[in-house]
Protein: Oxidoreductase
Organism: Berryella intestinalis
Amino acid sequence: MAALANEPAKLLSNEPVGPRLFLMELESPYIARTILPGQFVHMRVNQMADHILRRPFSVYRTDPGEGRVVILYQVVGYGTDYLTGLSPEADPAIELVGPVGRPWGARTGGERADAGRVLLVAGGVGAAPLYLLAQQLVERGAKVDMVMGAQTRSALVTLSDYRERLGIGVECATDDGTYGERGFCTGLASRRLDGGCASDGAPYDLVCCCGPEPLMRIVSDMAAEVGVACQVSMERRMACGVGACLSCVVDTAAGKRRACVDGPVFDADEVVWR
Ligand SMILES: Cc1cc2nc3c(=O)[nH]c(=O)nc-3n(C[C@H](O)[C@H](O)[C@H](O)COP(=O)(O)OP(=O)(O)OC[C@H]3O[C@@H](n4cnc5c(N)ncnc54)[C@H](O)[C@@H]3O)c2cc1C
Ligand code: FES
C-alpha cells in the first residue's frame, strides 16, 4: 500500500447535489494515483482555525490521469457545514492526508472479489466508499449487483454513476417510497441474497456494505445466514486518524481494533456489534 502523505489539494468545484449532499472535486495527484477502494483521506481546511481536527472522507471517484479526486459529503455538523461555504475562487488551503486505512478485499474477500459475484449494499452516503470498489470489480470481470437505500429519491445522487458509468444493476429503496421500493434496503438485500446473482442466479461470493451501523449489522447477519462472506466499512468518529488516540475503536472477536488504521473495512463476522 502507498505511503501516507500530506498533500495540499486545490479546490476545483464544490456543488450541492441533493438534500444536504455536496460533491467536491479536488486536484490531489498523489491521492488520485494511490488510493485504493475503501481507503479514505483525512481533510483539513486551514481556515478552520477554531476546529483543528481533521475530518475523514472516502474518495468517491478518481481521475488519476488528471490528478483529481471527488468527495461526496453529507452535511451533519460544524465541519461539513463549513465545507459547503468553500469556493474555488477563494482558493482555500485544503490538505488531504492519505491514503489512510485498509481497503476492501484486504481480508477474506480479496481473491474471491476479483472474479466472483459481489453484492454491494449502500445506505445513504455509504454509496460513496463503494464506487471505486465497484469500478475495480467491473474492470476485473466480476459480476456486480447493488442494492441502494436512501431517505428520498433526490438523495440517490450516485445512482446514475453506478448504472450508467459502470453498467451495474442497482435496485433501490427509499424511506418515503418516492423511488423504488418503500422502506429500507434490507428487504432488497435479503431477496438478492436468496435469489443469487442477477446475471446467473448463482450465489454471491462476497457482500460489501457501507451505511448506518444498524444496516451493516442486519446485512452482516443475513450474509452469515446464507454463508456468504461479508465486509463492512466502519465509519467511527475519528480524532488523530493515525492509530494513537483510540477514539475510533471497534470491538472485534480479536479485541479492540482501530477503525482508522486496522479498518475502516472489517470482515463482518469479526465485528462485535454494539
Ligand atoms: C472512514 C470514514 C469515511 C467517511 N466517508 C464519508 C464520506 O464519504 N462522506 C461523508 O459525508 N461522510 C463520511 N464520513 C463521515 C464524516 O467523517 C463525518 O460526517 C464528519 O467528520 C462530520 O464532521 P462535522 O464536523 O460536520 O460533524 P461534527 O460537528 O463533528 O458532528 C456532528 C454530527 O455528526 C456525527 N458524526 C461525526 N462524525 C461522524 C462519523 N465519522 N460518522 C457518522 N457520523 C458522524 C456526530 O455524531 C454528530 O451527530 C466518513 C467517516 C469515516 C470514519
Ligand atoms: S482516530 Fe485516533 S486511533 Fe483512530
Notes: The chain has seven helices and 16 strands. The radius of gyration is 18 Å. The first helix runs from residue 29 to 34. Residues 40, 55-58, 72-74, 76-80, 125, 128, 235-238, 264 surround flavin-adenine dinucleotide (ligand 1) (CB under 6 Å).
